[in-house]
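Entry 12.
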Amino acid sequence: MKIVYTSIFLVLLLVGCVNSDSIQFGEARPPKPADYPIDVYPAPELIDRQFDIVGEASADIGQWTDDQEAIDALKSEAREMGGDAIVLAGKESIGRGFSTQSPGYGPYAPKDSQYYYSSNARELTRALVIVYK
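Predicted 3D structure (tokens):
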């Protein structure tokens, strides 16, 4: 029984966590402090000053993790690269989810069924990291 609880805990831990990564373009910049405010833009045309793109960051979030956690992870990556802001560049689903369904319902249950489940296990959110000129 202990193995079952440990397995369930590990699955929930992996599905609910955030992993982030980044790629820096050009010269390395000194990192910003942990409390440095990072601006978030949904599109580059909304930025009202000149900027340079210095890298790309990505956050891989579990299905029970909210989008704010992904944005927080992207901001953290931007700080590490010495960035001032991020421009959200898209989100994609990766992997498949899992579910337990009531007997008699399979993976092709009607969408209006209370037992219908269709989800991707993880989402990858990407952002460009910018510095103001």
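Annotation: The longest strand covers residues 51-62. Residues 2-16 form the longest helix (15 residues).
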